[in-house]
Amino acid sequence: MQPIISIRNVVKTFKEGGKALPVLEGITFDIGEEFVAILGPSGCGKTTLLRIIAGLEKADSGEIVFTHKDAQIGFVFQSPTLLPWMTVLENVALPLRVRGMSWKEAEEKARKYLSLVGLQSFENFYPRELSGGMKQRVNIARALAIEPLILLMDEPFSQLDPLTAESLRSEVLDMWQWGVTSVRTIVMVTHNVDEAIFMADRLVIFTARPAKVAAIIPVEIPRPRDRRSPEFQKIEDKVYEYISA
Ligand SMILES: Nc1ncnc2c1ncn2[C@@H]1O[C@H](COP(=O)(O)OP(=O)(O)OP(=O)(O)O)[C@@H](O)[C@H]1O
Protein backbone atom coordinates (compact mmCIF):
# COMPACT_ATOMS: atom_id res chain seq x y z
CA MET A 1 0.00 0.00 0.00
CA GLN A 2 1.26 3.43 -1.00
CA PRO A 3 0.95 5.63 2.10
CA ILE A 4 -0.76 9.01 1.87
CA ILE A 5 -0.28 9.73 5.59
CA SER A 6 2.44 8.12 7.74
CA ILE A 7 1.90 8.45 11.47
CA ARG A 8 5.21 7.77 13.15
CA ASN A 9 5.59 7.28 16.86
CA VAL A 10 3.29 10.15 17.82
CA VAL A 11 3.34 10.98 21.53
CA LYS A 12 1.14 13.56 23.27
CA THR A 13 0.70 14.47 26.93
CA PHE A 14 -1.66 17.23 28.05
CA LYS A 15 -0.85 19.25 31.12
CA GLU A 16 -3.86 20.10 33.23
CA GLY A 17 -3.63 21.98 36.50
CA GLY A 18 0.02 21.00 36.89
CA LYS A 19 -0.78 17.32 36.27
CA ALA A 20 0.39 15.42 33.21
CA LEU A 21 -2.22 13.48 31.26
CA PRO A 22 -0.54 11.10 28.81
CA VAL A 23 -2.92 10.66 25.89
CA LEU A 24 -1.03 9.15 22.95
CA GLU A 25 1.83 6.79 23.65
CA GLY A 26 3.67 6.12 20.42
CA ILE A 27 1.07 5.81 17.68
CA THR A 28 2.42 4.38 14.43
CA PHE A 29 0.50 3.36 11.32
CA ASP A 30 0.18 4.27 7.64
CA ILE A 31 -2.95 5.37 5.83
CA GLY A 32 -3.25 4.96 2.06
CA GLU A 33 -5.99 5.76 -0.46
CA GLU A 34 -8.64 4.16 1.70
CA PHE A 35 -11.28 4.72 4.34
CA VAL A 36 -9.87 4.21 7.82
CA ALA A 37 -11.98 4.26 10.98
CA ILE A 38 -10.34 4.85 14.35
CA LEU A 39 -12.15 3.16 17.22
CA GLY A 40 -11.40 3.06 20.92
CA PRO A 41 -12.72 3.65 24.42
CA SER A 42 -14.07 7.07 25.34
CA GLY A 43 -11.39 9.64 26.09
CA CYS A 44 -8.52 7.50 24.80
CA GLY A 45 -7.15 10.14 22.44
CA LYS A 46 -8.83 9.54 19.06
CA THR A 47 -9.82 13.16 18.51
CA THR A 48 -6.40 14.31 19.63
CA LEU A 49 -4.73 12.21 16.93
CA LEU A 50 -7.14 13.56 14.29
CA ARG A 51 -6.36 17.12 15.39
CA ILE A 52 -2.64 16.40 15.20
CA ILE A 53 -3.05 15.04 11.64
CA ALA A 54 -5.00 18.19 10.74
CA GLY A 55 -2.29 20.42 12.24
CA LEU A 56 -4.71 21.82 14.85
CA GLU A 57 -2.67 20.33 17.69
CA LYS A 58 1.07 19.67 18.03
CA ALA A 59 2.55 16.29 18.94
CA ASP A 60 5.21 16.27 21.69
CA SER A 61 7.30 13.92 19.59
CA GLY A 62 6.99 11.75 16.53
CA GLU A 63 5.78 12.98 13.17
CA ILE A 64 3.05 12.93 10.59
CA VAL A 65 4.43 12.60 7.06
CA PHE A 66 2.25 13.44 4.06
CA THR A 67 3.28 11.92 0.74
CA HIS A 68 1.76 14.88 -1.11
CA LYS A 69 3.30 17.83 0.64
CA ASP A 70 0.66 20.31 -0.51
CA ALA A 71 -2.33 18.01 0.07
CA GLN A 72 -5.43 19.88 1.22
CA ILE A 73 -7.15 18.46 4.29
CA GLY A 74 -10.88 18.79 4.95
CA PHE A 75 -12.22 18.46 8.51
CA VAL A 76 -15.77 17.58 9.52
CA PHE A 77 -16.33 18.19 13.22
CA GLN A 78 -18.73 16.31 15.46
CA SER A 79 -21.21 19.16 15.76
CA PRO A 80 -21.63 21.63 12.96
CA THR A 81 -19.47 24.69 13.39
CA LEU A 82 -21.25 27.07 11.02
CA LEU A 83 -21.12 30.81 11.50
CA PRO A 84 -24.66 31.85 12.53
CA TRP A 85 -24.55 35.28 10.89
CA MET A 86 -23.66 33.89 7.47
CA THR A 87 -25.93 32.13 5.00
CA VAL A 88 -25.36 28.52 4.03
CA LEU A 89 -23.70 29.63 0.80
CA GLU A 90 -21.43 32.10 2.58
CA ASN A 91 -20.44 29.48 5.15
CA VAL A 92 -19.36 27.03 2.45
CA ALA A 93 -17.64 29.74 0.40
CA LEU A 94 -15.71 31.20 3.33
CA PRO A 95 -12.75 28.75 3.41
CA LEU A 96 -12.34 29.33 -0.33
CA ARG A 97 -12.27 33.09 0.19
CA VAL A 98 -9.70 32.60 2.94
CA ARG A 99 -7.61 30.74 0.35
CA GLY A 100 -7.72 33.77 -1.92
CA MET A 101 -10.56 32.90 -4.31
CA SER A 102 -12.86 35.69 -5.55
CA TRP A 103 -16.42 35.70 -4.14
CA LYS A 104 -17.81 34.81 -7.55
CA GLU A 105 -15.57 31.77 -7.98
CA ALA A 106 -15.97 30.75 -4.33
CA GLU A 107 -19.76 30.91 -4.59
CA GLU A 108 -19.79 28.86 -7.78
CA LYS A 109 -17.72 26.16 -6.14
CA ALA A 110 -19.81 26.34 -2.95
CA ARG A 111 -22.98 25.84 -5.03
CA LYS A 112 -21.47 22.77 -6.68
CA TYR A 113 -20.80 21.11 -3.32
CA LEU A 114 -24.11 22.20 -1.79
CA SER A 115 -25.86 20.52 -4.66
CA LEU A 116 -23.76 17.38 -4.13
CA VAL A 117 -25.13 17.13 -0.58
CA GLY A 118 -28.67 17.92 -1.76
CA LEU A 119 -28.92 21.46 -0.37
CA GLN A 120 -28.90 23.54 -3.53
CA SER A 121 -32.19 25.20 -2.67
CA PHE A 122 -31.09 26.20 0.83
CA GLU A 123 -28.16 28.44 -0.05
CA ASN A 124 -29.79 31.60 1.33
CA PHE A 125 -30.90 30.01 4.59
CA TYR A 126 -29.17 30.75 7.88
CA PRO A 127 -27.86 27.86 10.03
CA ARG A 128 -30.60 28.36 12.66
CA GLU A 129 -33.21 27.60 9.99
CA LEU A 130 -31.75 24.15 9.29
CA SER A 131 -32.22 20.76 10.97
CA GLY A 132 -29.23 19.01 12.56
CA GLY A 133 -28.87 16.72 9.56
CA MET A 134 -28.92 19.64 7.14
CA LYS A 135 -26.31 21.51 9.18
CA GLN A 136 -24.06 18.47 9.07
CA ARG A 137 -24.56 18.31 5.28
CA VAL A 138 -23.42 21.93 5.06
CA ASN A 139 -20.42 21.04 7.19
CA ILE A 140 -19.58 18.23 4.78
CA ALA A 141 -20.06 20.50 1.74
CA ARG A 142 -17.77 23.06 3.35
CA ALA A 143 -15.06 20.45 3.95
CA LEU A 144 -15.39 19.14 0.37
CA ALA A 145 -15.42 22.56 -1.29
CA ILE A 146 -11.70 23.11 -0.70
CA GLU A 147 -11.28 19.95 -2.81
CA PRO A 148 -9.16 18.07 -0.29
CA LEU A 149 -7.24 14.88 -0.95
CA ILE A 150 -7.75 13.89 2.67
CA LEU A 151 -11.01 14.14 4.62
CA LEU A 152 -10.90 13.86 8.41
CA MET A 153 -14.20 13.30 10.21
CA ASP A 154 -14.68 13.35 13.97
CA GLU A 155 -17.82 11.39 14.92
CA PRO A 156 -19.70 13.09 12.09
CA PHE A 157 -22.96 11.20 12.54
CA SER A 158 -23.14 10.85 16.32
CA GLN A 159 -25.38 13.87 16.93
CA LEU A 160 -27.94 12.94 14.29
CA ASP A 161 -31.12 10.93 14.61
CA PRO A 162 -30.67 7.31 13.44
CA LEU A 163 -32.45 7.69 10.09
CA THR A 164 -30.63 10.86 9.10
CA ALA A 165 -27.32 9.36 10.22
CA GLU A 166 -27.92 6.26 8.12
CA SER A 167 -28.73 8.16 4.94
CA LEU A 168 -25.75 10.50 5.38
CA ARG A 169 -23.43 7.50 5.89
CA SER A 170 -24.54 6.03 2.59
CA GLU A 171 -24.26 9.37 0.82
CA VAL A 172 -20.72 9.96 2.06
CA LEU A 173 -19.76 6.43 1.04
CA ASP A 174 -21.28 6.89 -2.42
CA MET A 175 -19.52 10.20 -2.98
CA TRP A 176 -16.22 8.68 -1.97
CA GLN A 177 -16.63 5.36 -3.77
CA TRP A 178 -17.68 6.86 -7.10
CA GLY A 179 -14.92 9.44 -7.04
CA VAL A 180 -17.23 12.44 -7.54
CA THR A 181 -15.09 14.46 -5.12
CA SER A 182 -11.35 15.06 -4.82
CA VAL A 183 -11.16 12.94 -1.65
CA ARG A 184 -9.01 9.80 -1.85
CA THR A 185 -8.44 9.18 1.84
CA ILE A 186 -10.97 9.35 4.65
CA VAL A 187 -10.07 9.05 8.32
CA MET A 188 -13.07 8.88 10.64
CA VAL A 189 -13.08 8.77 14.42
CA THR A 190 -16.07 6.97 15.86
CA HIS A 191 -17.45 5.23 18.93
CA ASN A 192 -19.79 3.25 16.82
CA VAL A 193 -18.46 -0.22 15.96
CA ASP A 194 -21.30 -0.96 13.57
CA GLU A 195 -20.78 2.30 11.68
CA ALA A 196 -17.03 1.67 11.41
CA ILE A 197 -17.51 -1.82 9.94
CA PHE A 198 -20.26 -0.57 7.62
CA MET A 199 -18.09 2.17 6.16
CA ALA A 200 -14.35 1.55 6.48
CA ASP A 201 -11.72 -0.48 4.63
CA ARG A 202 -9.65 -0.82 7.78
CA LEU A 203 -10.31 -0.36 11.47
CA VAL A 204 -7.59 0.96 13.73
CA ILE A 205 -8.40 0.12 17.33
CA PHE A 206 -6.85 2.08 20.16
CA THR A 207 -6.31 0.90 23.72
CA ALA A 208 -7.62 2.93 26.66
CA ARG A 209 -5.68 6.09 27.48
CA PRO A 210 -2.79 6.51 26.97
CA ALA A 211 -3.65 5.15 23.55
CA LYS A 212 -1.56 2.69 21.63
CA VAL A 213 -2.64 0.81 18.52
CA ALA A 214 -4.25 -2.39 19.84
CA ALA A 215 -5.14 -3.87 16.44
CA ILE A 216 -5.65 -3.07 12.79
CA ILE A 217 -8.50 -5.04 11.25
CA PRO A 218 -9.21 -5.06 7.51
CA VAL A 219 -12.87 -5.16 6.45
CA GLU A 220 -12.91 -7.02 3.18
CA ILE A 221 -16.67 -7.13 2.64
CA PRO A 222 -18.06 -5.78 -0.66
CA ARG A 223 -20.28 -2.68 -0.40
CA PRO A 224 -23.11 -2.08 0.23
CA ARG A 225 -22.53 -4.15 3.35
CA ASP A 226 -25.16 -6.22 5.03
CA ARG A 227 -24.98 -5.81 8.78
CA ARG A 228 -26.71 -9.18 9.29
CA SER A 229 -24.21 -11.14 7.19
CA PRO A 230 -21.96 -13.65 8.98
CA GLU A 231 -18.81 -11.83 7.75
CA PHE A 232 -20.05 -8.59 9.31
CA GLN A 233 -20.85 -10.31 12.61
CA LYS A 234 -17.48 -12.01 12.66
CA ILE A 235 -15.64 -8.71 12.39
CA GLU A 236 -17.92 -7.18 15.01
CA ASP A 237 -17.03 -9.98 17.44
CA LYS A 238 -13.35 -9.47 16.74
CA VAL A 239 -13.56 -5.74 17.38
CA TYR A 240 -15.36 -6.26 20.69
CA GLU A 241 -12.64 -8.67 21.78
CA TYR A 242 -10.15 -5.81 21.52
CA ILE A 243 -12.42 -3.11 22.85
CA SER A 244 -13.48 -5.01 25.93
CA ALA A 245 -9.98 -6.45 26.55
N1 LIG B 1 -6.66 20.68 25.05
C1 LIG B 1 -6.71 19.77 26.02
N2 LIG B 1 -6.18 20.04 27.25
C2 LIG B 1 -6.21 19.12 28.23
N3 LIG B 1 -6.74 17.89 28.11
C3 LIG B 1 -7.27 17.57 26.92
C4 LIG B 1 -7.28 18.47 25.81
N4 LIG B 1 -7.88 17.86 24.76
C5 LIG B 1 -8.21 16.63 25.19
N5 LIG B 1 -7.85 16.46 26.48
C6 LIG B 1 -8.03 15.21 27.26
O1 LIG B 1 -7.34 14.20 26.58
C7 LIG B 1 -8.06 12.96 26.64
C8 LIG B 1 -8.28 12.44 25.25
O2 LIG B 1 -9.22 13.28 24.59
P1 LIG B 1 -9.76 12.97 23.12
O3 LIG B 1 -10.84 13.96 22.88
O4 LIG B 1 -8.64 12.89 22.18
O5 LIG B 1 -10.37 11.51 23.31
P2 LIG B 1 -11.38 10.70 22.40
O6 LIG B 1 -10.87 9.32 22.33
O7 LIG B 1 -11.62 11.41 21.12
O8 LIG B 1 -12.67 10.77 23.31
P3 LIG B 1 -14.21 10.57 22.97
O9 LIG B 1 -14.28 9.24 22.33
O10 LIG B 1 -14.84 10.61 24.32
O11 LIG B 1 -14.60 11.71 22.07
C9 LIG B 1 -9.34 13.26 27.41
O12 LIG B 1 -9.14 12.87 28.75
C10 LIG B 1 -9.47 14.77 27.32
O13 LIG B 1 -10.12 15.28 28.46
From TrEMBL:
GO terms for molecular function: ATP binding; ATP hydrolysis activity. It comes from the Archaea. The keyword S-adenosyl-L-methionine does not apply. Pfam families: ABC_tran. SUPFAM superfamilies: P-loop containing nucleoside triphosphate hydrolases. The keyword DNA damage does not apply. Residues 5-233 form the ABC transporter domain. Keywords: ATP-binding, Nucleotide-binding, Transport. InterPro entries: AAA+_ATPase (IPR003593), ABC_transporter-like_ATP-bd (IPR003439), ABC_transporter-like_CS (IPR017871), ABC_transporter_ATP-bind (IPR050166), P-loop_NTPase (IPR027417). This is ABC transporter. It comes from Thermofilum adornatum.
